[in-house]
Amino acid sequence: MKLLIVILLVLLVSLQINLWFGDGSLSEVSQLRQQVAQQRQTNEQLNERNAALEAEVKDLKQGLDAIEERARNELGMVKKDETFFQIIEDNKAEKP
Hints:
By secondary structure, the protein is mainly α. The chain has four helices and no strands. The protein starts with a helix and ends with a helix.
């Protein structure tokens, strides 16, 4: 009877060691869950960015308004018979 109790106790200890320190232990599972949550957050941010880029591509393909706006903002282009004014702020005048 004592041999059976010793065998069961050894078996219980070995299972506990595997549970706490072996492959697939509780700490490893916790770390993996944290990594999965972090990856999901990164994926969500990338999906939002992709949706914005997709909308921009769609705008550029459909009409000239988006192309014109982009050319004006990024390249400083103006239409014929328009006058371009550039305002330069003096930062030194603002400081006492």
